[in-house]
């Protein structure tokens, strides 16, 4: 699904990521940990094709990203749902409209997906909040809405940046349960987190791999249960 071969990244100053060699297989579940500033968000941005490696090779869905033009990158990106660290909602749109936004961006008529949106909102437990504005939502509601928006295009892979960072433990487990459910449906999951308890909880339910970023390099980490 995603292959890195000796890939690296620099924003133009110092090297942020180096010598990445990794294969993220379809249907796998990965966590990414590492100290603040280690490059986790940068690594996720590579995975969801917001950035391209500045060294080495990276392939997504067997397409070499260096050779992919803008249209191809846009099509590949539709296969990857993203839950951003700060959710990134449009404040003037309702929850429902925010969830439907990727459909509009892809040029689809969101009204034809009304039933899908209803199903999705009820799956994340937000059917009663669909007309609320983002500012009226709690942290946990925002995270679940962001997850609904990430899966509205039925992506193959979901990338989540600290999806439980600003919510309490119980709500974090609820978000994790949704991600595990998606994985059981065959979706590939990649989650950046500082929360080792979250990783332990996931590892008791699914086969989760843990990657650790240290000084811009990836290590496979063991997390004691
Ligand atoms: N757009 C950018 N331009 C230049 N440097 C950047 C940019 N974004 C991030 N960086 C730098 O890249 C390094 C890695 O940042 P990144 O956000 O990927 O780390 P992180 O591990 O996600 O951190 P955190 O856990 O605090 O979110 C940091 O030194 C940061 O200052």
TrEMBL record:
Origin organism lineage: Bacteria, Pseudomonadati, Pseudomonadota, Alphaproteobacteria, Rhodobacterales
Domain called ABC transporter: residue spans: 2-225
Listed GO MF terms: ATP binding; ATP hydrolysis activity; transmembrane transporter activity
Organism, as annotated: Oceanomicrobium pacificus
Listed GO CC annotations: plasma membrane
Signal peptide limits: none
Alphabetical list of InterPro entries matching this protein: AAA+_ATPase (IPR003593), ABC_transporter-like_ATP-bd (IPR003439), ABC_transporter-like_CS (IPR017871), ABC_transpr_LolD-like (IPR015854), P-loop_NTPase (IPR027417)
Record's protein name: ATP-binding cassette domain-containing protein
UniProt KW keywords: ATP-binding, Nucleotide-binding
PANTHER family xrefs: CELL DIVISION ATP-BINDING PROTEIN FTSE (PTHR24220:SF470), IMPORT ATP-BINDING PROTEIN (PTHR24220)
Domain of life: Bacteria
């Amino acid at each position: 699904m995603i292959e890195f071969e000796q890939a690296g990244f620099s924003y133009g100053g110092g090297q942020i990521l180096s010598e990445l060699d990794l294969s993220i297989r379809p249907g796998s579940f990965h966590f990414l940990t590492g100290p603040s500033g280690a490059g986790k968000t940068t690594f996720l941005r590579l995975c969801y094709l917001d950035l391209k490696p500045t060294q080495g090779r990276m392939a997504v869905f067997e397409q070499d990203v260096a050779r992919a033009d803008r249209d191809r990158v846009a099509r590949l990106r539709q296969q990857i749902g993203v839950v951003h660290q700060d959710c990134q909602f449009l404040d003037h749109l309702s929850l429902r409209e925010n969830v439907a936004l990727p459909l509009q961006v892809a040029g689809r008529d969101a009204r034809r997906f009304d039933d899908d949106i209803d199903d999705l909102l009820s799956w994340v437990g937000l059917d009663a909040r669909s007309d609320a504005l983002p500012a009226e939502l709690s942290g946990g509601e925002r995270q679940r809405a962001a997850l609904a928006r990430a899966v509205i295009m039925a992506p193959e892979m979901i990338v989540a940046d600290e999806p439980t960072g600003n919510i309490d433990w119980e709500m974090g487990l609820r978000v994790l349960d949704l991600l595990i459910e998606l994985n059981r449906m065959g979706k590939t999951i990649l989650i950046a987190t500082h929360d080792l308890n979250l990783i332990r909880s996931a590892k008791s339910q699914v086969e989760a791999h843990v990657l650790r970023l240290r000084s811009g390099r990836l290590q496979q980490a063991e997390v004691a249960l």
